[in-house]
Amino acid sequence: MKKLRHISLSAAAAVLLLATQTAGAGEYRQFPGVPTDSHTLRIQERVEGIFSSGDYGRALLIYEKELAPRGDKYAQYMVGFMHLTGTGVRKNRAEALAWYRLAAERGEGPLLKARDALRESLDSAELERADVRFAELWQSYGDRKLLLELIASDLYLLRRSGISKGESAEDSEPGAYLAAGYTGTGTGEGYYRRVLERLRERLQYLSSTRDAAAAGIENPAVIEKLETEVRHDLRALDLP
User: Fold this and answer.
1) Which pLDDT band, with edges at 50, 70 and 90, does 46 fall under?
2) Cβ distance 154 to 195 under 8 Å?
3) CA angle, corner 136, sides to 104 and 132, nearest 5?
4) Distance CA 206, CA 185 (A)
């Protein structure tokens, strides 16, 4: 299990008030996305230093624009936290709840507690605004959206690999993977199998994520379009 990064000491007292003192140290399910590279790790470390130094506006920008779109649940939580407390941004409890809901979608206990505690404190008008905003965020940065994009990327790689309907890796032309512009270690067959294994892992994880109805999204136009395209490509490739 992957560990959530530790929240900076300057924010610890406020987190305690939200009954989420373990939010920086809890565990959440692995997300089969692009492995965290050194560049992303440097961003994560840098933003926590920026937050601790009191440069909240800059920290918010990095959490929201660079890390949250990668499915970083801690960053999504921090965006909500900063809107809730007015840290580097004007206080907005509805906006905070929308981000808390997104951060908690993997079922991590402390994040669920933070979401539920905040939800109980909002009035009906704030809850309505939070619902609208969450629908936007979920269709942009939610796990299902990110997974569908990754699956679409895998399907593209397989198409470019020269794998056509009913054709196995052994039947494909040697070197097709390199000719398509996708380098990798090992043989073409090995590359195909690695992509296929990753695709299957992501499809399995996708089945465990909430669809639009389960997420409470009434008009999921963005996600439905992407899902339709992905399902079409899966049928067209007829993968083994």
Assistant:
1) very high
2) yes
3) 90
4) 27
Q: Which two tokens stand for residue 45?
A: 């470390």
pTM value is 0.78
Local structure of residue 181 (DSSP, 8 states): T
Band of pLDDT at residue 104, cut at 50, 70 and 90? very high
Q: What is the mean pLDDT of the chain?
A: 80
Q: Report the run of H or E that residue 74 belongs to, with start and end.
A: helix 73-85
Q: Give the pLDDT confidence of 152-191 residue by residue, as tens digits.
A: 999 998 888 765 444 444 444 433 332 333 344 434 678 8
Q: How far apart are CA 82 and CA 80, in angstroms?
A: 5
> Is 80 in contact with 103 (CB distance < 8 Å)?
yes
Contact 23, 77 (CB under 8 A): yes
Give the largest CA-CA distance in the chain. Answer: 63
- Separation CA 197–CA 95 (nearest Å): 38
28-97-135-31 Cα dihedral, nearest 10 degrees: -10
Q: pLDDT > 70: what percent of the chain?
A: 73
Say whether 154 sits in a helix, a strand or coil: helix
Burial degree of 16 (CB within 10 A; 0-12, 13-18, 19+):
exposed
Among the listed residues 135, 134, 97, the one whose alpha carbon sits nearest the alpha carbon of residue 116: 97
Domains of the chain are 2-126 (1.25.40), 143-237 (no CATH)
Residue-level pLDDT at 30: 53
CB atoms within 10 A of CB 58: 15
The per-residue pLDDT for 13 is 33
Tokens of 12: 């610890």
